[in-house]
Amino acid sequence: MANERVISIFQGLLEKTKELIEEKQITHEEYREFCLWFDELGRTGEIPLFMDVFFETHVLRGMYSGLPGTEPSLLGPYYIPNEPGLQAPYTLPQRQDEKGEVLFFTGNVKDIDGNPLQKADVYMWQADADGEYSHFADGIPEYNLRGKMKTDEDGRFTVKTVIPAPYQIPTGGPTGKFLTYIDSHPYRPAHLHFIIDVPGHDKLITQVFFEGDPWLETDVADGVRDSLITKLEKFDDHTKGSITFELRPARVAAAKK
Ligand code: DHB
Ligand code: FE
Known about the structure:
The protein folds into two domains: 4-43, no CATH class; 56-256, Sandwich (Protocatechuate 3,4-Dioxygenase, subunit A), CATH 2.60.130.10. The chain is an alpha/beta fold. The longest helix is centred in the first third of the chain and has 21 residues, at 4-24. The protein contains six helices and twelve strands. It has helices at residues 4-24, 28-43, 47-54, 56-64, 174-181, 250-256, and strands at 90-91, 102-111, 121-126, 146-150, 156-162, 167-168, 187-188, 191-197, 204-210, 229-230, 233-234, 239-247. It has a five-stranded mixed beta sheet with strand order 1-5-2-12-11, with no helix packed on it. The protein is globular and about 60 Å long. The two termini are 23 Å apart. It binds 3,4-dihydroxybenzoic acid and fe (iii) ion (FE). 3,4-dihydroxybenzoic acid binds at residues 49, 52-53, 56, 74, 76-78, 167, 169, 188, 221.
């Protein structure tokens, strides 16, 4: 069955691509080289990575800019579902000798009028102190630094974890090759990932960044939003951080469509 939405978007894509081919006078040789590179992108499984690095941020900006509430950021390619449900007081699953500075992170989940949202489902995942994600890097236990929590009666959760390192997207494959062609570095600033889900509200997919991170300004995936940067407080043997998440009522997101 014909899908009008697909037809309309594909026509737009063809039109803009034709214009670009003419404007840049793309040669047949360049075209064939692109096809080989694109094929390699698929064969190495890097299509989700490439798409999320270059396009996801624009989809989010288009959908959410100007709306009230916490800004979404990239889901990225490293979420895996069915993370373990944790019991309070929360600690993200980690290795006995997990490297890195201990971080106590607090999230305050509210609606856009400032009312706390209790029993919100909070899904969290992050890279470790080497910048590696479990399930995607070898030798890390499944679901390491991933878990599901709930907010308490004040709409709050606190979790013990470690500070993640800035993440370097893989440089050995076609995405890395492409970054060299465009003279870009492969880094994302260190970040924590969250999905926050409360009935009656727009599901929030976002990330939290840390003030002072050297890659905030030039994130290769352009996922940083000023409102998602938190200042970490250093103590003798641990660090604290916090942020407030404001969830839009479901109808605000629906009204814009
Ligand atoms: C991307 C997002 C991430 O959160 C990450 O850790 C790596 C890559 C991305 O959008 O490509
Ligand atoms: Fe990430």
